[in-house]
Amino acid sequence: MLDPHFAGKLMDKELLSQLPSEVDPCGENGEFHTFVFDGPIFSEALPLQLGERVFRTYPSPTGPRDVGFWFVELLERSE
Fold it and tell me: What are the residue ranges of helices labelled H in 3-64?
């Protein structure tokens, strides 16, 4: 449902304001997945960097066509 440029972006107020109206900002319909890498319960942020943007297809569980998803690989940041 989302343009590939959304993959790998930080979820903040600016990103939420850019979501198309048909996209649930909570991702409840599978529009996107999130990964938490920093926050109050962390002693420090996880040392990550963005890797390659990838499109993968998977067999559809409900229909005749495969479904596809964009994602960005998360890699351990080399210090």
Answer: 13-18
